[in-house]
Structure formats: structure tokens, C-alpha cells
Amino acid sequence: MDFTTLPLLIAATLNAGTVLAIAALGLLINERAGIVNLGAEGLMLVAAIAGFATAMHTGSDWLGFAAGIGAGALLSALFGLLVIWLNTNQYASGLALSLFGAGFSAFVGIGYVQGKLGERPSFAVPLLSDIPFVGPAFFRQHPMVYLAIVLTAGLAWFLYRSRAGLVLRAVGESPESAHALGYPVRKIRLAAVVAGGALCGLAGAYLSVIYTPLWVEGMVAGKGWIALALTTFATWRPARVLLGAYLFGGVTMLQFHLQSQGVEIPSQFLSMLPYVATIVVLVLISRNPAWIRVNMPASLGKPFFPGS
């Protein structure tokens, strides 16, 4: 790896990590409110086809992002109604959502497999992008890369510095106590689920409109599950989510770099790297269950029955 290749690898790592970061931040909002959503993979797939189709027909990437956000928010609202008001099992409902999203996106996307978007715009921060090494590595990114960093800082402030964030965390820790104080626990949880789904939708749309950009059945390829694992890896803290996303993004890009360098390792093993890294991290974290319990929202995955 030479001086020319390294900045490009760093830039690719930031780009790959952005998809994971945005989705994981959405799931973090869900889990801070006490809701586990295992449907991130399906949400991202539906949002990916919605975003790609919209961008292709309108020629606007930003409308594509809006379509992805809308698709993610709508499906999450349906999921929220099932698990919050009808008290269906969160884990089973999330898995059903994931399976539905995979099948629905494949069906709707049949006509878009050969579709192509227009020439992708290039972005650069004036002056900073011309700095040797630093410019190509950090300042020639799509605005969504920087938005992920802003979202991380904003979510950290919201959770730990605002009254609304305190209420959200209280709902995730003890919904009974929050209800006793007069807070509408179910409405707060639904709002958190919709907001989290919107971010998963944005991640899916970014994947198909900018990161790839194309539509292929199953193109999310496990990124929704990695984003879900990231929340545990980050112990439900936004800044750690961002760092973890870049870590897994780096592992993903490393496999492509090794392949391009002619490293004589079967491509199947290199493709396994991000998922192996996810499993290894979760195993290492699981060795200290007490540490997880201290950081995990106390009511995570538990239903709430007002008045019970």
C-alpha cells in the first residue's frame, strides 16, 4: 500500500461506513425506546428500490433519498403498530418484516435490474480537497458522509442533553415509571420506531443511489444485520456506533483492496471478512454479560401494557 492508495482506501472506508452508520443510528433510536427491530434488512431493501426507482425516473438523487426515507418510515410505522399497540412479539415481527422486505423488493425491482442512473456527481470541499493526502481521503466525499457525522453528534446531544432525549431513554429503561409520570409511552415508542425506520430507509436509498449505484436483488447483503450488531458493539452510544461503522467499513474495503493487489486468498474467504468480524466482536462482547446489562436499556424487547 503506497502513499497514493492509502487516501483512496480511507475515502472508501468512510463511504462504506456511512451506510452502516446511518442505519445503526436509526436502530439505536429504536432500542433506546425499548423496541428491537430485526427488520432492518427488509427496510433497507425496500428503501433501496424505492430510492433507485425514484432517482431514475426523476433524475434527482435527493428525491430518491426522500422516497427511501418515506418507505422506511411507512414500513416502520406498520411494524410499530403491530408490536406497540397489538403487542405482537417484537422478534418475530421484525423477522417477518425482513422477509417481507426481501421478497417485496425483489418483486418490485424486476424491471429495474438493468436500469442505470445518470452520471454520478462528484463533490469536493473547496480548498480542503486540494490538501495532499488529507484532501482525497476526507474532503471529496458525498454530503451524506458528512451528514452521518452530523447525525451522530446531533443524536448524542439529543439523548444526553435534551429533555426529550431524557424522556426517550426513560421510556426505554422503565416504561411503567414514564407512564406513571404522565408520558404517552406508546406514542413515544412509535415516534422512535418511525424515526429509526426513516434513517434505515435513508441508508438503503444511499446504498442504491450513490454507493453502488444500481439495483440488484438482495443488494443490502447483510448490512442491516451488521447495523443491528453495531448497536450492541457500541453499547448503545452514538459516537461508538460511528466508529464501529467505520471499522466494519474498513474491513469491507480491505477485502476489495486485497483482491486488487492479487493476494492469493479465495475470494469467498475475503467476502466473509465483514461478517466474521461481526461475529468475533459480538463473541468478545458477550464474554462480559454484566457490562452489556449495565449499558443496555432495561426494557429492551419487552412489551408494555398501560395500566397493567
Written account of the structure:
The protein has one domain (5-116, 124-295): ABC transporter involved in vitamin B12 uptake, BtuC (Orthogonal Bundle), CATH 1.10.3470. The protein is globular and about 60 Å long. Helix 1 (5-32) packs antiparallel against helix 9, helix 10 crosses helix 11 (238-260) and helix 10 (223-233) runs parallel beside helix 12. It has 308 residues and is mostly helical. It has 13 helices and no strands. It starts with a helix and ends in a 13-residue tail after the last helix. The longest helix has 28 residues, at 5-32.
Number of helices: 13
Structural class based on helices, strands and sheet pairing = mainly alpha
Mean pLDDT: 89
- Strand tally, please? 0
Highlighted features:
mainly alpha, ABC transporter involved in vitamin B12 uptake, BtuC, cell membrane, membrane, ABC_transp_permease
Brief digest:
The protein is built from 13 helices and no strands.
Please render the helix and strand layout as text:
Blueprint: H1 5-32, H2 40-58, H3 61-85, H4 90-108, H5 134-138, H6 143-161, H7 163-173, H8 175-180, H9 185-211, H10 223-233, H11 238-260, H12 267-286, H13 289-295
Subcellular location: Cell membrane
Membrane topology: Multi-pass membrane protein
GO molecular function: transmembrane transporter activity
